[in-house]
Amino acid sequence: MKKFIITLLSLLFFCVPAMAEYKPIPENLSKQYKTEMEQIIDEKYPIVIKKIDNEVKDAKRIRDKILEIGFNIEDYITLSLIPETCIPSSDLDLYGKMLKVTKEKYLNETYTPIGTDSVNPIDDILSPYFIDNKVNRSKLTKILLYENKQIKVVEEYIKQVEKLRPTSNQNIY
Description:
Order of helices and strands: HHHHHH
Signal peptide: 1-20
Number of helices: 6
Strand content: under 5%
Largest sheet: none
Number of strands: 0
Keywords: Signal
Radius of gyration: 22 Å
Number of domains: 1
Structural class: mainly alpha
Oligomer: single chain
């Protein structure tokens, strides 16, 4: 048991810092970084909000179709995926652009987009850079709040549709 704990601690000590090493933006580029990040946020903010609104419109259209025609498993699955994947991924282009600029332009590293289990890349990856360089994150917070609000709207649509869902002994196709 003692050996296991020592091995685990040494793995954490040597591996985790290598994977999540924070390299600060050079001091002479801090102001430029702040300005560029805020410009990206300002540019992408309305696009992200529009994407979220479009996902909610799609959800409403699917809900209305199900209420009019009747329950259909394919439509129900599509509707269920909107709050789980579509709305939360509306801001991926924004985060991708900010990560790319941060890595390539300010840290002189090659940016390779990789999958992440991160629910919020801003907190996990970009936050230390934004804090150190005093980047205004108010619009990013607004995006997250708006996403959560719209997810609740779509979840209500799903609840309305679930009332029409057949019982297990009925055909759902």
